[in-house]
Design goal:
This protein has about 325 residues and is an all-alpha fold. Helices cover about 65% and strands about 0% of the residues.
Length: about 325
């Protein structure tokens, strides 16, 4: 859970995506055509036919759709100064104290509010888990997207340009990879302060190195291909070559890597919240809820268990989908 950089970098090296190449390299139109066995449309078709991938995608869809709607309701409720709007999809107000139900076990008596039990102040654990979902979803999307953008810019520049640019950018990347990701996040949080926004900025600043390594390897592999040479001889600029050939040929493997990485981000973010980093006092977070529940374990087993199950369920869904896409891209399974 702690050394995220090492595990993710190892996974990046396990496979190389199948590359798309044109049937005819024409200097004037040296575009790389999208084949029938690659690209986003093929991946979507594969997921629809593969039961394991489809089950993971179904769980992810529920998580994302609910998080988006719930997040919009929370924003709307704050903008209109009407907190009740934030709780329309929840069994109850996650901040309401139910006196007499402090640390009450899961029960169907007050369904669905008490389905997962109550915390030490009588607040519904189910409502608090659901209320925290948009924050985890937003963190995973922003961090992975920013890592892809930063990693692509630095990695492709290093691999395609080469020379001193490659040397400088890769040494910077190695410096980030030399330290465990969790320790870097903790150190930067201590410097910048605590809070949700600080943790987002911190993880966005340190999550890109493995993507930079991946895109550099792709650029080194592709820049000597015939259709890239033809494009260069035809007078296309480096920027257009990168956008037409290098990046499109990296889509298949990066989809698999990014899908797995969404789960890694949620796990890392929850770990930091478990340690009390990035937690806003009074606002529910899956990791911090699990940490608070441990102080009452094992007698009050439900307090820590259900937030941990929420984390595990989301991470497993991303892993199921990402692993199957990775197997397909790497040629270990075919459809």
């Amino acid at each position: 859970m702690g050394d995220g950089h090492t595990n993710r970098l190892t996974r990046f090296r396990l496979f190389k995506g199948r590359q798309r190449s044109p049937s005819v390299a024409v200097p004037d139109q040296a575009e790389t055509p999208l084949g029938e066995t690659s690209g986003i449309r093929f991946i979507v078709g594969f997921v629809r036919r593969d039961k394991i991938a489809l089950s993971g995608a179904f769980g992810i869809a529920i998580f994302i759709v609910f998080s988006v709607i719930q997040g919009l309701l929370e924003l709307l409720g704050g903008y209109l100064r009407n907190p009740s709007l934030s709780y329309l999809l929840l069994p109850s107000d996650p901040f309401t104290f139910h006196f007499g139900l402090e640390l009450a076990p899961p029960s169907l008596a007050n369904f669905p509010v008490g389905l997962l039990g109550y915390d030490e102040t009588g607040r519904s654990i189910l409502s608090r888990i659901l209320y925290a979902a948009p924050r985890d979803a937003l963190a995973s999307i922003l961090i992975v997207v920013s890592a892809i953008v930063i990693g692509m810019a630095l990695g492709i520049s290093a691999g395609y340009i080469g020379g001193w640019a490659d040397e400088i950018l890769m040494r910077i990347t190695d410096a980030f990879l030399a330290f465990p990701l969790i320790l870097l996040a903790i150190a930067m949080s201590l410097i910048l302060g605590n809070g949700y926004l600080v943790v987002l900025i911190t993880l966005m600043a340190i999550w890109w190195p493995t993507y930079a390594r991946f895109f550099r390897a792709q650029a080194l592999s592709l820049k000597s291909r015939g259709y890239v040479e033809a494009s260069r001889l035809s007078g296309l600029s480096s920027a257009r070559i990168i956008l037409r050939h290098i990046f499109p040929n990296s889509i298949d493997p990066i989809v698999a890597i990014a899908t797995l990485d969404f789960g890694n981000v949620i796990l890392t973010y929850s770990t930091l919240a478990f340690l009390g980093i990035g937690v806003t006092v009074g606002v529910p977070e899956w990791g911090s809820m699990a940490a608070q529940g441990l102080s009452y374990a094992p007698r009050v087993w439900w307090y820590a268990l259900f937030p941990a199950i929420a984390i595990m369920a989301v991470v497993v869904c991303f892993s199921l989908l990402g692993d199957r896409i990775q197997d397909m891209v790497g040629g270990r399974i075919s459809y």
